[in-house]
Amino acid sequence: MKILFWVVLAALQGFFPFLVREEEACALQTGNYLYESLDDEKLAGISEELPESIQVIADDNGAKRTVELTDAQEIEAAVQLFMEIQIGERTDLYVTDRYHSISFTFEDGEKTVIRLNDKNLEWKNGELYELEGIGFFWESIFRD
């Protein structure tokens, strides 16, 4: 009887994907590139269609710094560094008062926003993932 239950459950999950645990459905894979991992067509094709602008906001305890890139060469250099960022391990290390974001605005007006807690990705359901290689991107944006 137990075997029949598991066979039926497995079959139902194939027909009804919403029966898969939500945690499994939205988990990110360690080592994958960030731009390919976020289920965003614009980000996935960012090397072919560069954004018109990139805005990066660093908010440390209310001291907000904003950098907006609109120069094509600066955008291309920033995108190259952004494309090197990889998904790291899932973490529970949440830092209060360090809320950052990276926004890409494309020619068609579509905007993609990535939310960060310190330098960790804030993902669905409040999950946090370390980001490997984000330091190089961050340093190039806030180079002053």
Q: Helical amount among residues, as a percent range?
A: 25-40%
Low-confidence segments: 4-9, 15-25
Structural class: alpha+beta
The multimeric state of the shown protein is single chain
What's the overall geometry? globular
With strands numbered from the N-terminus, the spatial order across the biggest sheet is 2-1-4-5-6-7-3
Order of helices and strands: HHHHEEHEEEEEH
Share of residues in strands: 25-35%
Largest sheet data = 7 strands, antiparallel
Output the radius of gyration: 18 Å
Count of individual beta strands? 7
Could you give a short description of this structure?
This protein has 144 residues and is of the alpha+beta class.
Describe this structure in words.
- The chain has a seven-stranded antiparallel beta sheet.
- Mean pLDDT is 85; it is low at 4-9 and 15-25.
- The protein is built from six helices and seven strands, in the order ααααββαβββββα.
- Helices cover 32% and strands 31% of the residues.
- It is globular, with a radius of gyration of 18 Å.
- With 144 residues, the protein is of the alpha+beta class.
